[in-house]
Amino acid sequence: MHFKVKYYPFVLWREAMKIKLLFAGILLAISSSLTYAEKKPSAEATVEKMTKEEAAASEKKAVEKPKQYNETFNPRQKEYPNHLGFNDLHIQAIRHIKPDTDSVKDPKLQVIVHHHCKAYDDGTFICLMFPTGMKDQDKPIGFEYIISTERYNTLPEEEKKYWHYHKTEVPRAHATFPDLTAEEGAKLLPAINETYGKVVYFQQLGDPLPVGEPYIMIVQELPEQD
Fold first, then answer.
1. Sign of CA dihedral 80, 74, 143, 135
2. pTM exceeds 0.70 for this model
3. Contact indicator for 177, 186 with CB cutoff of 8 Å
4. What is the pLDDT of residues 42-92, one digit of tens each?
């Protein structure tokens, strides 16, 4: 006995769609595999990338600025505005150290004292005084307080003797501005001339510690220099 199987158009269409979907899935899987293989970096490329990143990090570390402050006492290298600015003006001058004798040839009169000054908004300056410069381990031995002529004129008469007039003392001290050009210094000099300074020392030159009482150096009473 034979039976004839009758295929209706809908059944044929459904079977055909199944086959199409099957082929489409296979093609999609193959395409995804090829794309992933193309995008996936090789082992050599990964190593090369890591090497470049390590080299960049090493180079960055090499060019980083050295720590400015003691890492034990200031591990986070914090800075505060009130201690910055003592490089606003750099002056170097002789005839600022108390001599051991009254001779004009006393060697201490020839010692160059570096004034590293900070300018304040009220028109005053405070200069830390270093007889050897301002390298990391150099210590200040005193300071000079600088005010305008107008402020000087308001001081009590008994106080004025401690202050020296810079228009007179700048040439006597052979003062220079080592961080400025000659033209820049010439423009600044008229303003500096019309100021007065008071020098206070808390340590003697050459002493390892500040022994004894601080003292005021009356600069205008020091022996003249050539």
1. negative
2. no
3. no
4. 555 555 665 666 666 655 554 566 777 778 878 888 877 766 778 899 999
Distances, alpha carbon 20 to alpha carbons 12, 13, 133, 159, in Å: 12, 11, 88, 107
- Domain coordinates in residue numbering, the chain: 9-63, 81-221
**Tokens matching residue 54:** 């390590």
The number of residues making up the chain comes to 226
| Residue 176: DSSP 8-state | B
Locate 118 and state its tokens: 């900070």
> Closest by alpha carbon to 171, among 220, 103, 133, 117?
220
Q: Which of 23, 126, 25, 129 is nearest to 83 (CA)?
A: 126
Which residues are CB-neighbours of 114 under 8 A, at least 6 positions away? Answer: 90, 91, 92, 129, 130, 131, 132, 133, 134
